[in-house]
Design brief:
The chain is an alpha/beta fold and 311 residues long. It has helices at residues 17-33, 59-70, 91-99, 115-122, 138-152, 170-181, 210-216, 227-230, 238-245, 249-254, 275-278, 285-304; strands spanning 48-53, 74-79, 105-110, 126-132, 159-163, 185-189, 205-207, 219-222, 260-262. The protein folds into two domains: 17-136 and 290-304, Rossmann fold; 138-288, 3-Layer(aba) Sandwich (Rossmann fold), CATH 3.40.50. The structure holds phosphoric acid mono(formamide)ester.
Length: 311
Amino acid sequence: MGFLRDKHLLGLAETPKEDIELILQHASSFREVLDRPIKKVPTLQGKTVVNLFFEDSTRTRISFELAQKRLSADTVNFSAGRSSLKKGESFKDTARNIEAMKIDCIVMRHPVPGAHVHLINYVNSVVVNAGDGTHEHPTQGLLDMMSLLEVKGNLEGLKVALVGDIKHSRVARSNIHGLLTMGAEVMLCGPPNLMPVNIENLGVSMSYDIDEVLAWSDAVNVLRIQRERQGVSYIPSVREYRDLFGITHERVERLKEPITIMHPGPINRGVEIDSDVADSENAIILNQVLNGVAVRMAVLYLLLGDQPKAS
Ligand code: CP
């Protein structure tokens, strides 16, 4: 079962180039299905997927559920807040009880980095990471690469800036790993105290000058200021953050060449990005959301699909 090197998709750090290419090729085919009047194929008929979300989500959760339904899989949604975890049941028992109901795959979002490594020790099902704390969000990295490919045609040599709170961003980590694997150049920009120590060892460059970074870039992926993950205030004020690192109307207007504007959502309009920049013709933010369904269809198919039987 499965067409990728690994049984699970836990992160892009460990996903080889051939597998990323295979996922993006299949995502492009599945993207066409989403334009059909009947947006459904029988590919995963008979498979059962549980969406196990221990943290809030709008895009990822709906996108995974839609991807499962478009592939004709049976889907079940689980919210930690309404489960027996509230009565003291352990994570291990919860996972093992869910698996006892004969499921094939668990898509999990969890606030703890590395929670999925524990999960794969407790269950035999295929596990897909839908975001683990500040660690990785591999399907977001994949959908960002698919969206860049659509507008730029190639990732090799593409100059992509990631701007904002790099330290707390799983989106940044998955983008860095995926883009570098695919031959893109990555530059990071954000407040020094929101930049992970030694991050340049991964092969990225860094700058604290947002205007210099935007002038260098073919595309900028703007990260959200994650107040709920920081716990403490890392930025003196929202206004100062916007002045120093915001993707503002004035900054974008000053550029000699237009650049592609991306954001994984949810957006803090007027903080990390101006509202009219987020809605401008160079912004592909809603394409990213649509491509998310196609990428997740591709990932689920390549992990759960049956190999053709030898005749
Ligand atoms: N991009 C993203 O992960 O959004 P959600 O938190 O809404 O799923």
